[in-house]
Amino acid sequence: MSFDVNGKVALVTGANRGIGKTIVESLLSHGAKKVYAAVRDLKSADPLVAEYGDRVVPVEVDLQKPATITAAAQTASDVELVINNAGVYKGQTPLSPEAADSLKFEFDVNVYGLLRVAQAFAPVLKQNGGGAFVQLNSIASLKNFLSAATYSASKAASYSITQALREELGAQGTAVVSVHPGPIATDMADHAGMSEGAEPPTVVSEAIIHALKNGEFHVFPDSMAKQFGEGYESFAKNFIEANLAEA
């Protein structure tokens, strides 16, 4: 399913910085009518409002607080595109004493947060004609990195849920996109020790818009991600994207 962002209303979680902020800017530059900047602290979206005026509408969303997501879905009842960008990184090895706590935290935001957003906004997208739902996953959803083992596990789970959402939301005419960036120049990349060679967030935001327009499910936006995509392509097309029920 193809989706053109021009003239559409979007919502982006984690919109105040990094990839999320760049996604908001790219959507607006490609003609989005309005973008709800879904953030935990409404004031953190002030720079976007100052630059874009009423085309940016801050709305409170904390992926660990379901009530904020439900309220946002009621406020943003005209949304046609949801981009769930917000996520957290702790990154512990399996034998680390902090591994269980990190995994619990990362799953609560990166996996259960995805479920909460999808469940709240699926009816909104349906009533507005179907629209599109984009989930920011990671190359870590395909390959577990030892130093980020718990994060990788959470992203593998979110990718698995995204595959199911593609089928379930597709039945209501909602396009679903799974985005798998490698190292991107953000605070999270710095925290993960992956800032060297990191590419700008615009490679992600522009790749999302391109994928939406071309009806693509998998997005591998940057150089490292493209290497993963090339190696994964055959399996993805023959198993993940294929309708095995009709095989």
TrEMBL record:
Keywords of the record: Oxidoreductase
Pfam families, A to Z: adh_short (PF00106)
Keyword Oxidoreductase belongs to the record: yes
GO MF annotations in UniProt: oxidoreductase activity
InterPro entries, per the entry: NAD(P)-bd_dom_sf (IPR036291), Sc_DH/Rdtase_CS (IPR020904), SDR_fam (IPR002347)
Family from the record: Belongs to the short-chain dehydrogenases/reductases (SDR) family.
Protein name according to UniProt: Uncharacterized protein
